[in-house]
Design a protein that fits this description.
about 190 residues, mainly beta, 8-stranded antiparallel barrel, elongated
C-alpha cells in the first residue's frame, strides 16, 4: 500500500497537492544474488487541481480544472541490493511495464470524451508504457517476513493523466510519485 501524487498540467499551480492511495501485489523471485526480479500489480487513484489553469489559446472556457485519475499498473522491476551488511539493505531499481488510466471530473464523469483541453484531432489513449525508477530500504523481520519502504517515480509516455494534452502549459509527459510500504511474505521453506 502507499500514497501517490501526479505531476501534470493540473499540478503546476498554487493549489495544494493531495495524495491519492494505491494498493498492490508484488511477487519476487527469492534470490541471494544482487538483482531481485519482481512482478508488480497496482491499483490506485491520484488527484490534481489547478483552479486558474492558464491553458494555451484554443482551450474551451469550460476546461476541466480538477481531475481524479484512476489507474492500473503492471510492471517488472529489477531491484539491486547495494550491500547486504547489517540489518538494513539499501535497494535501487528500474523496470518496464504497462499503465492504464481513466480521468474523472469532480462530479465523477469520465473525461476521456471531453475534448475541451485537447486540440482537434489530437491522439488520445488511456494506456501507456511505464518506466518505474525506485529507491528504498529493506529489512528482515524473521525467516518468512521482510519489510520494505521505497519511493518510486513512474515515468509514463502520456500527457493525459489529467485529460490535458498539448493545450496545457507544462511541457513533457505526466508522471506519478509513489511512496510504498511493502511486507514480503516468503512462501515455501523458511530460511
Amino acid at each position: 500500500m502507499g500514497a501517490v501524487t501526479q505531476t501534470s498540467d493540473l499540478t503546476s499551480g498554487d493549489d495544494p497537492v493531495v495524495p491519492g492511495g494505491v494498493v498492490g501485489l508484488t511477487a519476487e523471485l527469492e534470490s541471494q544474488k544482487t538483482i531481485r526480479p519482481q512482478l508488480n500489480l497496482w491499483l490506485g487513484r491520484s488527484t490534481a487541481q489547478y483552479r486558474n489553469a492558464p491553458f494555451a489559446s484554443g482551450a474551451a472556457g469550460a476546461a476541466t480544472t480538477f481531475v481524479e485519475t484512476r489507474f492500473f499498473a503492471a510492471y517488472l522491476l529489477l531491484q539491486a541490493v547495494l550491500w547486504k551488511q547489517g540489518p538494513v539493505e539499501p535497494i535501487v531499481g528500474v523496470g518496464v511495464g504497462l499503465f492504464s488510466f481513466r480521468p474523472y471530473d469532480a462530479n465523477g464523469a469520465e473525461l476521456t470524451t471531453n475534448g475541451a483541453t485537447r486540440l482537434e484531432g489530437e491522439t488520445y489513449g488511456t494506456t501507456s508504457a511505464l518506466v518505474p525508477l525506485s529507491v528504498g530500504l529493506a529489512t528482515s523481520l524473521g525467516s518468512r517476513l521482510r519489510a520494505e519502504v521505497r519511493y518510486q517515480r513512474w515515468l509514463t509516455l502520456t500527457d493525459y493523466l489529467d485529460n490535458v494534452g498539448e493545450l496545457g502549459t507544462r511541457s513533457g509527459n505526466d508522471a506519478l510519485s509513489h511512496f510504498q510500504l511493502l511486507l514480503h511474505l516468503r512462501l515455501g521453506d523458511a530460511r
